[in-house]
Every structure is written in structure tokens, then in C-alpha cells.
Sequence to fold (473 residues):
Amino acid sequence: MTTADLLQALRAALGDDHVLTAPADMAGYAEDWRKRYRGVPLAVALPGTTEQVASVVRLCRAARAAIVPQGGNTGLVGGAAPDGSGKQIVLSLKRMRRVRALEAADRVLVAEAGCVLAEVQRAAREAGLLFPLSLAAEGSATIGGVLSSNAGGTAVLRYGNARALCLGLEAVTPQGAIWHGLSTLRKDNTGYDLRDLLIGAEGTLGIITAASLMLYPQPAARRTAWVALADVAAAVHLLARARDALDAGLTGFELIGRECLHLVARHFPALRAPLPLDAPWYVLLELSDSEDEAHAQARLEAVLGAALEAGGALDCALAASLAQATAMWQIREHIPLAQAAEGLNIKHDIAVPISRMASFVADTSARLQRMIPDVRLVVFGHLGDGNLHYNLQAPAAADADAFRAQHETACNELLHAAAMAAGGSFSAEHGVGLLKTAELARYKDAAALAMMHAIKRALDPDGLMNPGKILRT
Ligand SMILES: Cc1cc2nc3c(=O)[nH]c(=O)nc-3n(C[C@H](O)[C@H](O)[C@H](O)COP(=O)(O)OP(=O)(O)OC[C@H]3O[C@@H](n4cnc5c(N)ncnc54)[C@H](O)[C@@H]3O)c2cc1C
Fold:
């Protein structure tokens, strides 16, 4: 099948309006969120149904055209970016955004892959329930995208990551067959777990078209606090104290370095930090309580009071209203946006056992500062999961592009090697995409890597599903 035949067949299958080929129409699909990867797709296909997704896959297969699945295009590792060959088809799930069902008795919601995360949260909320996956890009990230990258976010320490919240999938295989796996069961031990294989596969093994998702009860009350700390060790102690006292009530524990708050203050001056910026570290802590507001308040005050008394915390502010709690979370969520506004930077998404976090940060910060005097360490993240976004911004007066070009490789090597040596990971929640294929080849256990290649070959022998992502071909 020629390229012209493929485009004609795609238009016949989807309708002219749902096959984009003009560069201006495709621009938003051709470049990733961080503007690191800009490709040139042959076309962007926008199917509206699972059957249409299967048709697109079969047509692309006949034409031997590679497919790049795309959701909200908010991924941070280039996984949804087409290459520059002008031959790949971006398959956007954007039109498939229906919540198909919500069954309160089963605590299950079935959503199509293109459903935006915030819409799923809203649908659950309107039914008096909670879909707990939450991240700063939730206004654009889709269910297909969060599952394909096994996203984490701010509530993992209580509810788990995307994988832990998914009961079943509907997907289109690389051969163009539809897999009807939308189970709503908690238990189903019937062979290999294909759901877990597709989750986190970053579109390299098939296309997720819908998912059944677990819902939780809405907490009766939530309390949020902002705590100033002298160092990461104090944050780790506070985490242990909060876990012991609050148990499953602890639903958020985010670490924020002071440099992050300087960037937020510069680019989003309306967002005012609740405490003066005179401490090196801050923690944003959230308690979800199943009783009531007074109970929640008393529990949180007890934890923070004890931490202040013991000298573990320097100062703290408790949100007195929902508006104040929202404002605290907005500061946290604007850190990546403030970093993007400040200019290109070097991002890391490392995981380290919590027990080693304090020495890891102390050691690596000292080494990085020796390597690049005046480098700005923009460190924040999900300390409750042992996951930090350990980012580096150019010194204030330096050119951001030149900084990245000069230092990225050495900084990556330093931090990734240190994380691996500490028993951690070079990619905690963002995935591998294009950005970290070299790290995967270097650090992944050899037997695991061999199994990954074998699975890829078995399911996608022609290598048409998101080639070059995760595994180097
Ligand atoms: C400001 C900001 C904050 C963020 N915070 C977090 C965070 O806290 N935690 C976190 O984990 N991530 C975070 N991210 C990263 C990003 O939001 C997540 O990776 C999200 O899961 C991507 O969803 P998406 O729909 O945008 O996917 P895309 O970017 O479109 O795609 C991501 C990957 O999934 C594949 N894919 C997409 N849809 C499908 C499908 N239907 N079937 C098969 N493959 C598919 C793509 O090919 C690609 O490999 C953040 C991003 C931004 C911009």
C-alpha cells in the first residue's frame, strides 16, 4: 500500500475531518510538552471508536507505517513524539473521551482512553466517590496516557500508582485485534496478566482504548499543612512520625526545596507561600480522615505539635479553609510550570529507598555543586514514595540551552549512577520513552532486558508500535 493509498484509506475509515495532514494542524501533536522532541508525522489519525482504532492499526500494518499512540501529550520523556521521518502516524485518542459506566456498588468506573484525568475525577466525585490518581497535568493527561506510563502523582503513598488503580483494559493489539479485557473483578487468576503488561508499556505493545478503574470512598475531611524543615533528614523523620500516627490517613507527603519556591514566586507571583522562604526545605502534608473535620484537625495538630516540640520541624502552617489548602497544592503543582518558564533544564525522576534519601541528597548535591558552581538545584517530589524530581536549572545568569548541552550527560550519569548504587531507579514514574533508552540498556538487569525484548518481538514482530521508545531497536 502506498502512502497516498494509506491516507485515502484512513480518510475513508475515519472521515476527512479526523485525518490531519496539514503541518499547522499537526503541530500540537508533533512536539512533546518539554519541547525536546519535534517530529514530522505523515498524518494524525483521530479515531472515535475502538473499532476505528483497530481499523487504523490494520491499515497502518498493511502499509507498514509505524504508529505513535498519543493521549494528552503531557509525557515528560518523549514517549508520544513521532520521529522526523515523515512516515509515522500519530494515533490520538482525544476523541474517545466517554465515561462509559460507573457502578457505585462495585466501586468501578469505565472510561475511554482519551478521557482526561480531571474528568474521571469529576465523574467519581459526582457519584460521591474518589478516583485518587492526581498529578499536576491532570487537566490534559488522559487515562490511556496515565496507564501507558503507569503514572504516579501525589497520592501514591496511600492509593498506589495508575497500575494499582486499574482492574481491566480494552485494547487493540499490534495486529489490529480488539482485546475485550474490561474486567471489573478484584480477583481473576486466569493466566498471564496482560493488563499489567500493557500498563507501563508506553504504547509499544498495543493501544489502550478503555479501562475499568477502581474508586474509593471520599474522605469525610481533609487537612493540609505546610512545614518548614532544616534538612531532608528532618523531612524523613517527619514522614515516619506522620505514618506512625496517621497510618492510611496520610494521603500526601511532598518535599519541596526552597529554590522551587523562588521560581514559583518569580513566575507566578500571585501564589504566595504560606511561610517565609527562610528554610531550605518544606513539606506539604495531607491527611484524609474518615470521621470529621474536628477529628482530622486534632490528629494533624498532634503530629505537627510533636514534631515542633522535638525540634524536627522549624515552623508550620495549617490550612484553615479549603481555599487555603488548594492554594498550598497550587504552589506545589506550579513548580514544573515555573521551571519550564525559567528555561530549559535538566530533569531527573529518581527513586531511592526512603531510608537512604537524606544521605543521597546531601552527597549528590555536594557533588553537583562542585561540578557546576552556582547550579540551581530544583528538588521536589513525592518523598512519601521515595521519588524525587531532582532537577537542575542553569545558574541565574547563564544561558539555559548552553547549560543543558554542556552538562546534561555528566549530570545524568552522576545522579542515575548514584540512585542505582543506592538501590533506586533512574525513572520512578515518568517512564523511559525516548529520553532514557540508554539508561535502560545500561542499568536494567540483563535477564529482565532479554525478556522485554522477547515480549516486544512476540507481540509486535514488525516493530510498528511506537518504535524506538523504551527499547532501542
Ligand atoms: C506539569 C506536569 C506534571 C506532571 N506530573 C506528573 C506526576 O506527578 N507523576 C507522573 O507520573 N507524571 C507526571 N507528569 C507526566 C505526565 O503527565 C504523565 O506521564 C501522564 O501519564 C501522561 O499522560 P498523557 O495522556 O499526556 O500521555 P502522552 O504524553 O500522550 O503519552 C505518554 C505515553 O503513553 C503512550 N500512550 C498514550 N496514550 C496511549 C494509549 N491510549 N494506548 C497506548 N499508549 C498510549 C504514548 O505513546 C507515550 O509513550 C507530569 C507532566 C506535566 C506536564
In short: The mean pLDDT is 96. The chain is about 40% helix and 20% strand. The first strand starts at residue 19 and ends at 20.
